[in-house]
Every structure is written in C-alpha cells, then in structure tokens.
Design brief:
This protein is α/β, with parallel strands linked by helices. It has 13 helices and 19 strands. Strands 1, 12, 13, 14, 15, 16, 17, 18 and 19 form a 9-stranded mixed sheet that branches. Strand 15 (about 335-340) and strand 16 form a beta hairpin. Helix 5 (about 105-115) crosses helix 6. The longest helix is centred in the middle third of the chain and has 20 residues, at about 205-225. The radius of gyration is 23 Å and the shape is globular. Bound molecules: pyridoxal-5'-phosphate. Pyridoxal-5'-phosphate (PLP) binds near residues 60, 101, 198, 235 and 374.
Amino acid sequence: MENKKKKVPFVTKAQLEEMVKQYPTPFHLYDEKGIRENAKAVKDAFAWNKGFREYFAVKATPNPFILSLLKDYDCGCDCSSLTELMMADAVGFGGEHIMFSSNDTPAEEFAFADQLGAIINLDDFTHIDFLEQTIGKIPETISCRYNPGGVFLLSNGIMDNPGDSKYGFTHDQMIEGFRILKEKGAKYFGVHAFLASNTVTNEYYPKLARQLFELVVELKEKTGCDIRFINLSGGVGIAYSPDQTPNDIAAIGAGVKEAFEEILIPAGLADVAIYTEMGRFMLGPYGCLVTAAIHEKHTYKEYIGVDACAANLMRPAMYGAYHHITVMGKEDAPCDRKYDVVGSLCENNDKFAVDRMLPEIEKGDLLVIHDTGAHGFSMGYNYNGRLRSAEVLLKEDGSTQLIRRAETPNDYFATFDCFDILKNSKYITN
Ligand SMILES: *Cc1c(COP(=O)(O)O)cnc(C)c1O
C-alpha cells in the first residue's frame, strides 16, 4: 500500500463545493485542459507520419462539446451507428473525417454514412455485396476490418481472443475481399484491426502495427490494390489502478514508427497513413463521476451509499472494473476503513467498490470516482427508472460549462407521449 502511486483528481474540493451549488450530484465532470494536452501529445507522437489522424471513438464519450474540442487537433470521428453519425455531422465533421467502423450494420446506416461521404470500414466479407446492393455502388475509398483469429499475446501477459470475437474478415477473406472490391471499382484501400482492449503497455500498437504492415505488404503483392491507410483502431488503455504505469504515447508512436520503417518503407509503402480510433486513451482519465455519500449502513459489511449508481457508470457492475475513488478533503487521512461503495439499483452488483480501504466517510462527503471520461456516461441506462446525470466541462480558465443537462422524468416518460395513458398526465409536459 505504501508504495502505491497517488491518483490525484483534476479538480479540488473547493472547486467541487462551488460546482455542487450549481449542478446537483451526481454528475460527470470533464477536464478540458487534460483533454487538450493529451490530444496534442497524440498528434505529436505520430507527427512522423504525414497522413496520421486520430478518429475519436464517439461511443466512448458521445458529446458534441467534447467532439468540438478534439476537432482543434484535426481529429476525426469513428462512428458505429446512425445517431453517432448524426452527431459527427452536426458538429461539422464530414467526408474523410468520419470513419464508419460498425458491425452487423443496418442498410440505412450504410446509406447514411455514404451520404455523409464517410469512409466505410467493412466488418464482414458478406457486407461487400450488402453495401453494393444498399448504395448501388462500391465507394472509391473502402476499408476492411481484419481478424487474424487465435489469441493475441503481449509480453506482460495481456492477451485477448480475436478468435472468439465476432469482428472482422479472416486472412483469406481479406485477400479475396480486396480483389472483389477492386473489381467492383474501389480505388483506395484501408486495413483496420482491433485485437486487444484496454492494453496498459506501450507494446500493443507496435505489435499490432507489425502484423497489419505485413498483411498490407501481402495484400499489395497479391491484389495490386492501392492501400492508403492502416487503422490501428482503439485498445490503448489507461491506468485505472494506482499501481499501473500509464501508457506513454510518445513511446507508442516511436514503436509504430520503427515497424513502419522496417516493413512498409522497404515495400514502397512510405506514403501510407496511420490512423487510430482511440476512445479510452483520449478521454478516460479526463473525466470523473462526482457523487455524494448519502447513507451508511452497518450490517454484515460496512456500506456507503452514494447518490450515483451503476446507471451512471456501468463498468464496475459489468466487468468488475476497478475505478479509483478519492474522498475529497480526506486525501491524507489514513485508509483504515473497509467499505463497499454502492448505488441504489435493486441489483446487488451495483457497487462502485467492494472491500475498498478508504478513509472514514461521513454523509455529505463528496467522492470522486476516477477515469470515467470514456465508456462512463455513455454506457448509462435507465434501469430502476434512474435518470442519466448531467455532464459538466471544467474549462481551462477554471470556469464550468454544462455540456449536457441531467435527464428529468419528462425525458424518461417521453417515449410514452403517443399513448393516452400518460399523454395528459402531469408527468409529461410539452
Ligand atoms: C470501441 C471501439 C474503439 C475505441 O476503443 P477504446 O478501447 O475506447 O480505445 C475504436 N474502434 C472501434 C471499432 C471500437 O469498437
């Protein structure tokens, strides 16, 4: 415990006490300064590659204000659904700044992506025909998602199971697919793969890059296709726990560069652009969930009840994921209490922390649940009739901006507005 590095919130207790006067807890708070510095570091890490672009994975933090910040760094958007495409379009992304990396894709979404001029990244061999039938052609620029099967192993033991995952083309389907797409009129090609999630090691992208670069050399030789970009997708992780060492994006960029120089340049592919589709790495550490302790319960265990619940942050309930918790104002107090920190859902997995050593918590204490900037708010749901919280941006000048209001009962009931049973009730206002 003594050796644990400290995780420090990006916001102070004094700042939070001001904020809660204006925004009732719980709410998700985002750190503009951190987002900007990190986006710049990503851009710098890949500056050696002329065409580099990060397509932010919108599903991680689908908020137009956040997308606008990333626009300043020439990021694009990686969308996976109709509404994500609409949001990207509304914020002013268009054409090649939108990557449509979806799977099990409905026809209307291919059509809409095509209408926006987005780059379509096909998840499956059969989608070649499906896309052609849907939009009446094969676009000039097209990308395919690769799945090598088997297991993906890194030296620190991290592994994932591409062979078990529903995504992507097999090796032979990639070759055949590129041939067919070329015959059908595609001119420019891209290759995409996402083989391991939340990797906290600088090794993931370089190793993935090597695998994709070799595939691209083979694809070029066997199909003669003009391959313009390689999309390393997401999967770059963050240090949720204080004993993890965060990824170093400069080292990651340098590792990809080394593979690029070894494999692509000698193959005459020096002009290929590197794309990324990070979500977690772009936003995860720069968001937190602010919640207040409202109850304490002493039964067979010690419980702290907070006013947030898994509907605001699903990762602990869904994956048993660790999210660090800071009790504001008690940063230096001894962590001599063992608590389960729980929400109000009628679900026994609604626990932000289990058996967590924390300072003594009193009702009214503000808790910061760290690293909720990606896959936090966005995985929210309405179980138990719980409403989604607000999202607030802590700006660089220290002021705050509401970037999404909290849901109200009106929002919850809105989808019943066409039924008499609730239409005229006092719970739906028009
Ligand atoms: C989820 C997802 C991402 C982002 O993943 P992170 O782990 O947040 O970096 C990128 N691309 C695709 C296709 C995804 O499904």
